[in-house]
Amino acid sequence: MNWNPSDHDCVRATGDAVACEFGDGLALLDLKSNIYYSLNGVGAFIWELIQDPKSIADIRGAVLARYNVDAERCNADVDALLKGLAENGLARLQDEAFV
């Protein structure tokens, strides 16, 4: 998958997973593959944000506002998580067709 979105592209969870709190984060069950994923607290925060379409810039801004993190590290970590979610079919760019 070619993941090269711009800051203004929107991301949204696909609805193909169910989530439950697990420690400080979330456990996600992909309903299509029956694979479990775990997200730490920051990942859980991002997962909640993308239940509705959010621009990548807005997601990064929300993480920066909530957590004490360097902007460069924030951008890299947010991008890596969103890419991973997209590669596993759990999130999509808004302009992609939603199933």
> Oligomeric status of the shown chains?
single chain
**Separate helix tally:** 3
Q: Note the run of SSEs as H and E.
A: EEEEHEHHE
* Second CATH tier, the architecture: Alpha-Beta Complex
Sheet-strand content, in percent, reads 25-35%
Question: Percentage of helical residues?
Answer: 25-40%
Q: Kindly give the count of domains.
A: 1
Helices and strands in order, then pairings?
Blueprint (H helix, E strand, L loop, with lengths): L9 E4 L3 E6 L2 E6 L5 E4 L1 H9 L4 E2 H11 L4 H17 L3 E3 L6
Antiparallel strand pairs: 1-5, 1-6, 2-3, 3-4
Helix pairs in contact: 2-3
Describe this structure as you would to a colleague.
Helix content is about 35%, strand content about 25%. Helix 2 (about 55-65) packs across helix 3 (about 70-85). A three-stranded antiparallel beta sheet has the order 5-1-6. Strands 2-3-4 form a three-stranded antiparallel beta sheet. It has helices spanning about 40-50, 55-65, 70-85; strands at about 10-15, 15-20, 25-30, 35-40, 55, 90-95. The chain has a single domain (about 10-90), classed as Outer Surface Protein A, domain 3. By secondary structure, it is α+β, with helices and mostly antiparallel strands. Strand 2 (about 15-20) and strand 3 (about 25-30) form a beta hairpin.
